[in-house]
Amino acid sequence: MKKIGKLIPLIIILYISAGHQGKTTALNMQKSQKKQVELKGEVQQPGICEVNWHATMQEILDQCGGVKETAHLDQMNLTQVPNNGDVIIITKKTTSACISINTADAKTLDQLPGIGLKMAERIIQERTIAPFQTLEDIKRVKGIGDKSFEKMKDQICL
Quick one: which of 39, 52, 65, 82 has the most CB atoms within 10 Å? Predict the structure, then answer.
């Protein structure tokens, strides 16, 4: 009988503890409906943003102020669901520098697709005779036709 008397308080303590843990679990479940992510870079409102637990990148960006015009989203998966505590950095679009066909040296012209050092020298020689007035004028150079021009046209400027 004495053993049972000692077990009753222990059972009551366990019962109370179990009931309290159930309430804590319910509270934790309510808290887990939201998560926090930190936005940095080319966003309108950088900082910590609280969003729904299953929010996608697109929903987060929309809810937290959107992105600047300079934001580079081409390589970002906007359907991805980031984790709680993630830091999201939106990078800036970079404008690639073009190579001036009127002023670039042979070494720089050599960086263009399909142009070697000999072709670069021909370009320099041709522009010495008459500067290029349009991008298509580079086709005056022997060895540069429509196909070569198409490969390089997005990388050249006057």
Answer: 39
What is the C-alpha separation between 149 and 156, in angstroms, rounded?
10
Once rounded to an integer, what is the mean pLDDT over residues 53-78?
90
C-alpha atoms less than 13 angstroms from C-alpha of 44 in its C-beta half-sphere: 10
Cα–Cα distance, 111 to 94 (Å, whole number): 19
The whole model's pTM is what? 0.45
What's the CA gap between 122 and 106, in Å, rounded?
Answer: 9
**CA separation for the pair 111, 118 (Å, rounded):** 12
By C-alpha distance, which of 116, 125, 49, 128 is closest to 86?
49
Q: What phi and psi values does residue 12 have, to the nearest 5 degrees? A: -65, -45
Statement: residue 138 has pLDDT above 50: yes
Q: What pLDDT does 76 receive?
A: 83
Smallest CA-to-CA distance from 78 within 57, 61, 53 is with 57
Look at residue 72 in the predicted model and tell me its pLDDT.
Answer: 84
pLDDT at res. 32: 66
Among 87, 82, 80, 147, which residue's Cα sits nearest to residue 115?
A: 147
